C-alpha cells in the first residue's frame, strides 16, 4: 500500500518545501499540478522549479495545466471579459479543473488499494497519526489547526478540514473528494444515498495537521487574494498591502470564516493567538532559525 500526496501549486515555494520535508517519510509520491492561469483567469508563468527540491526529485510528479475549462462563461468571449455575476462561478470551475487534472499523475501508477491524499498546498496533514493499514473508513478527513501570517499565529475560532484521503479504487475525482462534507452522517440520513457530498462511511482525524495560510509578505498576500477563488469579495474590501501589514502587526484577521455564504466576510476583526514553538510541528521546531522570519516571537 502506497501513499500519494497530491496538491495544486501557484508560487508557494516556502510552503511546498515545508510540505515535502514534513511528509517525506510517509509519502511514496508527491503529485503537484500547476496551471498557466490563475483562478481569476489571468495568464501566469509557471513558477514550479523541480531543481529547487532536488532532495525529493525522484518522488515528484509535476503536471502542467495548459488551458482553461471549456465551461467558463465570459460576457465578452473575444476579450475574455467576465461579468460580475460569473466571476465566482468561473473561479470555482477553474479550481475544479486544476484539481481534477491531478488524476493523470496517479492514473497509471497507483494501485486500487493505494491511498490518495488531496490538500491545497498550504494544508499539511499530520501523517504521523494516520494509520492507512488499519483504517476501515472509506473517506478520511483531517481536522487541522488554522494559522495566519506566521507559523505560530493561530486562529482558534475554527478547525480547518482541508486534507482528504481515499483509496484509489474509491476516488471519483479530486473535486468530488474536496467537496465532501466534513461530517459523519448517521445511518438514518437517507439523503446520504442520493448526495455525493454526504457520507456515513467517513472518519475525521483529530489533530490532523496544519493549515498555514498567507505565510508570505503583505504584497504577495494582496496579489494572491486578487487571483484566488474569492477575488471578487477581496476587491470589494478595498484592502491593500499597507492594510494587510497593519493587520499582521496587530495579530488580527478581518475575515469571518463563520459568516453566511451570502454575507460579506470582510471587515470584522478577530484576534490571532500567539503559540509557543513547542506546539508547532517538529520540523519547524528543529529548523526555527531558518524559519525565524516566519515566526512571531516578540
Radius of gyration: 19 Å
Instruction: Report the span from N to C terminus.
Output: 45 Å
Rounded average pLDDT:
90
The percent range for strand residues is 15-25%
Please tell me the CATH architecture of the largest domain by its name: Alpha-Beta Complex
Written as H for each helix and E for each strand, in order along the chain, the element string is EHEEHHEEEEHEEHHHEEEH
Per the CATH scheme, the topology name of the largest domain is Spore Coat Polysaccharide Biosynthesis Protein SpsA, Chain A
Number of domains: 2
The backbone outline, from C-alpha atoms, is globular
pLDDT < 50 stretches: none
Could you explain how this protein is built, in words?
It is globular and about 50 Å long. It has two domains: 208 residues, Spore Coat Polysaccharide Biosynthesis Protein SpsA, Chain A (Alpha-Beta Complex), CATH 3.90.550; 81 residues, no CATH class. Helix 5 crosses helix 7. The protein is 24% helix and 25% strand. The mean pLDDT is 90. It is built from eight helices and twelve strands. Strands 1, 2, 3, 4, 5, 6, 7, 8, 9 and 12 form a ten-stranded mixed sheet that branches. The chain is α/β, with parallel strands linked by helices.
Amino acid at each position: 500500500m502506497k501513499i500519494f500526496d497530491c496538491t495544486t501549486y501557484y508560487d508557494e515555494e516556502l510552503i511546498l518545501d515545508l510540505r515535502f520535508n514534513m511528509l517525506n517519510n510517509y509519502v511514496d509520491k508527491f503529485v503537484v499540478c500547476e496551471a498557466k492561469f490563475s483562478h481569476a483567469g489571468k495568464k501566469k508563468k509557471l513558477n514550479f522549479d523541480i531543481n529547487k527540491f532536488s532532495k525529493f526529485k525522484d518522488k515528484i510528479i509535476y503536471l502542467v495545466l495548459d488551458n482553461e475549462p471549456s465551461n467558463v462563461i465570459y460576457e465578452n468571449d473575444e476579450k475574455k471579459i467576465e461579468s460580475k455575476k460569473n466571476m465566482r462561478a468561473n473561479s470555482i470551475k477553474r479550481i475544479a479543473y486544476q484539481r481534477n487534472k491531478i488524476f493523470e499523475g496517479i492514473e497509471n501508477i497507483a494501485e486500487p488499494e493505494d491511498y490518495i491524499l488531496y490538500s491545497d498546498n498550504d494544508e499539511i496533514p499530520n501523517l504521523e497519526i494516520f494509520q492507512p493499514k488499519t483504517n476501515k473508513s472509506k473517506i478520511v478527513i483531517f481536522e487541522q489547526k488554522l494559522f495566519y501570517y506566521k507559523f505560530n499565529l493561530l486562529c482558534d475560532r475554527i478547525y480547518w478540514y482541508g486534507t482528504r484521503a481515499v483509496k484509489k479504487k474509491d476516488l471519483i475525482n479530486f473535486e468530488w473528494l474536496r467537496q465532501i462534507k466534513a461530517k459523519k452522517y448517521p445511518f438514518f440520513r437517507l439523503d446520504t444515498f442520493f448526495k455525493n457530498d454526504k457520507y456515513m462511511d467517513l472518519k475525521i482525524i483529530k489533530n490532523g495537521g496544519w493549515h498555514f495560510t498567507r505565510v508570505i509578505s503583505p504584497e504577495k498576500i494582496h496579489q494572491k487574494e486578487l487571483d484566488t477563488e474569492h477575488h471578487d469579495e477581496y476587491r470589494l474590501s478595498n484592502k491593500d498591502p499597507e492594510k494587510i501589514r497593519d493587520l499582521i502587526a496587530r495579530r488580527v484577521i478581518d475575515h469571518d470564516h463563520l459568516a453566511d455564504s451570502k454575507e460579506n466576510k470582510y471587515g470584522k476583526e478577530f484576534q490571532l493567538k500567539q503559540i509557543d514553538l513547542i506546539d508547532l510541528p517538529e520540523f519547524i521546531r528543529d529548523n526555527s532559525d531558518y524559519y525565524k522570519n516566519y515566526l512571531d516571537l516578540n
